[in-house]
Amino acid sequence: MLEEFRGDLHIHTCLSPCGDLSMLPTLIIMKAKEKNLDIIGICDHNTTENVAAVQKAGEKEGVSVIGGIEITSQEEAHILAFFRTGAGLENIKNIVYEHLPGINNEVVFGEQVIVDDKDEMLGINERLLIGATTLFLEQIIDIVHNLGGVAIASHIDREAFSIIGQLGFIPSGLKLDGVEVSSLGKLRQLRVTHPEIDNFPIVSFSDAHYLEDIGKKTTSFLLEDTNAEELYKAFKGVEGRKVLSAQ
Amino acid sequence: MKLKEIVDKLELDVKTGSSNLDKEISGGYVSDLLSDVMANSREGDIWITLQIHQNIVAVASLKNLAGIVLVNSRVPENETIKKAEKEGIPILVSNLPAFEVVGKLHRMGIPGTADAGGI
């Protein structure tokens, strides 16, 4: 039976250089429960290395965690991607790493901490995760689709690191599975200036870099269960699964 | 040439780093892609851009740039101002578009990377 589930699918961990160091698996899960979220997504900048830890922490507490990544394109626009399998996540990470030049400077950009499900530190990621890949938007979307994932344009209403901010519009023919709007208050105006956004499901997530922001913006989905396969179907609009309203 | 002279000649609005205007400028770079600035700007460059988010301060600090000129009367975000004050990075605002700002700086004798026999 199809039911409505509420999710915040754009949450960073302590692995993102700009993510607060308290963005640890057990604390993220605790906050998600407190906010009554049915489903959360982990999307660090250009990496997936903390996804499994949060998923494991979530299993213990009955919070469904979808594995994702926020990829920076060559145009410096952010794309969220979600995958249905661990293999998909592993593959996207490897492809992104192959196309991500540079070494992080943690004094300037922040620390990039890899942790386990008990919040214990496993190591430091030395790559320049804040940087841009050499991949173009179209390439990223094709790669994500080939790996069986969905691709959603991040915070298109923001000026920085968004498709509309960097390019001025959403190029026609871009095979996005959705667009994320940060401030729903701006949606009406955005629809006037960029009518192309109505070609896609519109979602809103917190883009939390701090614990207190988790669940501040959410989107409801019509699903049979809270797993990545069901979410995939919702973004593709098949078998009755749907992206409902953003809150 | 010192930053101070540029501020006076181009009538720039000093938003941050007013105590660091004695910095010597060795060249200039213009780009709105941070990855490009990280890869191709040089220490001592003045950077001309329309980007206003806080990552411009991180890039300027990382590359030891002399300062940042925002074009078209762009208003830096609050976080950008806070971070720039903390790091002592001058952010200077011009009401002119990038082409005019760069043209004026070039006429004042500030070299680009190619002029200086660089990349």
Task: List the topology elements.
The complex is a heterodimer of chains A (247) and B (119).
Chain A: E1 3-11, H1 25-34, E2 39-45, H2 51-61, E3 64-72, E4 78-82, H3 86-98, H4 106-109, E5 113-115, E6 121-124, H5 137-146, E7 150-153, H6 163-167, E8 178-180, H7 187-193, E9 202-203, E10 219-223, H8 228-236, E11 242-246
Helix pairs in contact in A: 1-2
Chain B: H1 3-10, E1 13-16, E2 27-30, H2 34-40, E3 45-49, H3 55-62, E4 67-70, H4 78-87, E5 91-93, H5 98-107
Parallel strand pairs in B: 2-3, 3-4, 4-5
Antiparallel strand pairs in B: 1-5
Give an overview in words.
The complex is a heterodimer of chains A (247) and B (119). Helix content of chain A is 28%, strand content 23%. Chain A is of the alpha/beta class and 247 residues long. In chain A, the strands form 2 sheets. Chain A has a 9-stranded mixed sheet with strand order 9-8-7-4-3-2-1-10-11, with helices on both faces. Chain A has a two-stranded antiparallel sheet with strand order 5-6. In chain A, β7, α6 and β8 (178-180) form a beta-alpha-beta unit. The longest helix of chain A is centred in the middle third of the chain and has 13 residues, at 86-98. Chain A starts with a strand and ends with a strand. Chain B is built from 5 helices and 5 strands; from the N terminus they run αββαβαβαβα. Chain B is globular and about 35 Å long. The two termini of chain B are 22 Å apart. Chain B has a 5-stranded mixed sheet with strand order 1-5-4-3-2, sandwiched between helices.
